[in-house]
């Protein structure tokens, strides 16, 4: 079935349509200077295609939030979630086929790149059974795939650029159709822009951008001047989903409106110079009455733990008798046994920590531990050690304390991977395979496992090298522990 959605009208008043199925296979690039109508074009495309295909919008300015009321998109405020949480949200959006808007407006440039990369990574890493067709619209794409390094860190730039490259280069086989919009082609990474087969070029003034736009549309250089004459909302179209020859069209109206409307001229208020001076130069308010910045919404687990603590506060005070050393050891052994039982479940490595903690608490209560159940923070630390295969005796070793100190510089979800590699190095076991590292991290992606090792190596904690047969050896910096050679492509954890 061919679905042709109306984008507007041509200069001859004919209806200009876009073949949605062809777009899903060939991707789209939109270019135009600020004020040329790019966001209006994207809004028209999203509104017309909403009944036919799942959508997600990477929205750096909060312009597309209005889609939620009219078309039922789920708005995800990125400032309220961690990178890991956004990655999980991306995977679940694909699984449940929910259209989303990732609102990044409250974040600075670096955090916008990091969280957009995490969300796109979740879309990209979804299991094959959930590769449903999806339009992935990225407004102001030059922010997420810059052609040159800017003021953000190299790590954030690499993460974001890698996610955008995956979307445009490898997303088609996974059902992801990238639609990217940029103010200037010169600001956009070439390997990202080059993968689009459909183009909508709006008003632009710089010679270099006009020349590149003309080249992409197959126009002669002398025709490039035409891009200066385009009005707001007018675009030159070319591509298998649009037209086989360059076609000028005007984008039609939209049902929803952006929050950031075009500025309109209005008369200044009438006021005397004395009144203006008294108002503008008045003493600033005291620090303690300034309105506080909006804090991120607490995590669901944090809310549950807070409710639990409040419930405990209102209970009658119970005086707990001190336990002997034998009783403490026996309780610790019971907790460790329960944790091992939870981790023994077939899919335990790939379940979110909230679900694991809930099952852990239930098992502890069944065992009669009562108020002795570890809180969420303690459970996270126990889980890191469990995924690394550590026991209580090993964590008390002085040498292992150095490993724990070094692991603390890594994000919490990576510490278990580092400790697992450190344990293999300490014992002289073969280096864990990519599959074992991915499982310890809670992922099925072997590529992500290799990225983890690269990141840990960039932090100066390990050195990775291959021997003559392609087997991997990891050496811990300063401690001089080294793993035995291990096959990175092995499907199972190397035998101890």
Automatic annotation (TrEMBL):
Extract the Gene3D superfamilies matched here.
P-loop containing nucleotide triphosphate hydrolases
User: Which intervals hold domain AAA+ ATPase?
Assistant: 24-339
InterPro entries linked to this entry: AAA+_ATPase (IPR003593), ATPase_Atu1862_pred (IPR014588), HerA-like (IPR008571), HerA_central (IPR002789), P-loop_NTPase (IPR027417)
Organism, per UniProt?
Bradyrhizobium canariense
This one is known as AAA+ ATPase domain-containing protein
Q: Which Pfam families match?
A: DUF87 (PF01935)
């Amino acid at each position: 079935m061919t679905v042709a959605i109306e984008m507007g009208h041509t200069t001859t008043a004919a209806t200009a349509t876009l073949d949605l199925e062809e777009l899903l296979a060939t991707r789209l690039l939109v270019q135009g200077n600020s004020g040329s109508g790019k966001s209006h074009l994207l809004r028209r495309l999203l509104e017309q295609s909403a009944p036919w295909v799942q959508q997600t919008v990477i929205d750096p300015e909060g312009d597309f939030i209005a889609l939620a009321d009219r078309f039922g998109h789920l708005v995800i405020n990125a400032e309220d979630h961690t990178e890991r949480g956004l990655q999980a949200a991306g995977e679940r959006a694909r699984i449940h086929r929910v259209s989303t808007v990732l609102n990044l407006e409250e974040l600075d440039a670096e955090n916008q790149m990091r969280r957009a990369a995490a969300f796109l990574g979740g879309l990209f890493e979804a299991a094959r059974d959930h590769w449903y067709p999806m339009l992935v619209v990225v407004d102001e794409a030059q922010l997420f795939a810059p052609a040159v390094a800017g003021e953000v860190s190299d790590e954030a730039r690499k993460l974001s650029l890698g996610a955008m490259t995956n979307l445009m280069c490898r997303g088609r086989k996974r059902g992801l159709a990238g639609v990217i919009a940029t103010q200037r082609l010169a600001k956009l990474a070439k390997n990202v822009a080059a993968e689009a087969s459909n183009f909508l070029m709006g008003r632009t003034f710089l010679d270099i951008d006009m020349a590149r736009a003309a080249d992409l549309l197959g126009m002669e250089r002398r025709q490039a001047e035409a891009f200066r004459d385009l009005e707001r909302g007018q675009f030159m179209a070319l591509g298998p989903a649009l037209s086989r020859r360059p076609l000028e069209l005007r984008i039609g109206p939209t049902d929803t409106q952006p929050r950031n409307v075009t500025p309109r001229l209005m008369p200044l208020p009438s006021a005397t110079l004395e009144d203006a001076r008294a108002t503008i130069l008045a003493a600033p308010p005291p620090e303690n009455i300034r309105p506080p910045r909006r804090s991120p919404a607490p995590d669901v687990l944090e809310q549950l733990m807070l409710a639990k603590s409040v419930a405990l506060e209102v209970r009658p005070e119970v005086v707990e008798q001190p336990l002997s050393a034998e009783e403490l050891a026996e309780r610790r052994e019971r907790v460790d046994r329960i944790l091992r039982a939870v981790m023994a479940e077939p899919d335990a490595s790939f379940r979110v920590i909230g679900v694991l903690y809930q099952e852990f608490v239930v098992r502890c209560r069944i065992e009669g531990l009562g108020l002795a159940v570890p809180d969420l923070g303690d459970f996270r630390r126990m889980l890191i050690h469990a995924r690394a295969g550590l026991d209580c005796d090993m964590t008390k070793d002085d040498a292992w304390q150095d490993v724990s100190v070094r692991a603390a510089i890594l994000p919490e979800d990576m510490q278990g991977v580092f400790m697992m590699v450190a344990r293999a190095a300490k014992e002289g076991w073969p280096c864990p395979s990519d599959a074992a590292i991915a499982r310890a991290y809670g992922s099925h992606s072997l590529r992500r496992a290799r990225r983890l090792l690269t990141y840990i190596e960039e932090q100066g904690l390990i050195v990775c090298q291959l021997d003559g047969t392609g087997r991997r050896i990891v050496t811990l910096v300063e401690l001089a522990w080294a793993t035995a050679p291990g096959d990175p492509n092995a499907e199972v954890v190397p035998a101890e």
